[in-house]
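so im writing up the methods section and need the Multicomponent K+:H+ antiporter subunit E record in one place, dumping it here so i stop losing it
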Amino acid sequence: MKRLLPSPLISATVLLLWLLLNNTVAPGQVLLGAVLAVAIPRLTAGLRPDQPRIRRPLTIVRLGLTVLWDIVVANLQVAIRILGPERRLSPRFFWLPLDIRDPHGIAALAGIITMTPGTLSSDLTPDRRYLLVHALDASDPQQVCEEIKRRYEAPLMEIYG
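--- predicted struct ---
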């Protein structure tokens, strides 16, 4: 089974996304999605030399809900800030010190930061100890760092160990 599906989570995600993008569960689309779900992970296995070790799968659900909530709230906050006076904006870059060491966790953290409106991850130091982040409103970069570490990095450290 491992040979047929080298990465079952990626296969399940590909199939689910295929069906969502096509907005149907017609047999032909399910079959095509299943073929893609088997083929894509097998063809890209060489590009993923390290398989992630997920230690707390339920934490993924909690983190996912947190990220979804934060995206909704951040959209509203960004809209209010952009429509308001420009002097209320305090954009800046800052270095986020990282405690997480797993490359999959760092990539997930960078992705979460980038997906959340008003923030963007833009660089990682060669030693993987600092992530360069841009925030639309960072009047207190230390507070933004603490919130990112508490809301995203801590659960990712639980997930990836």
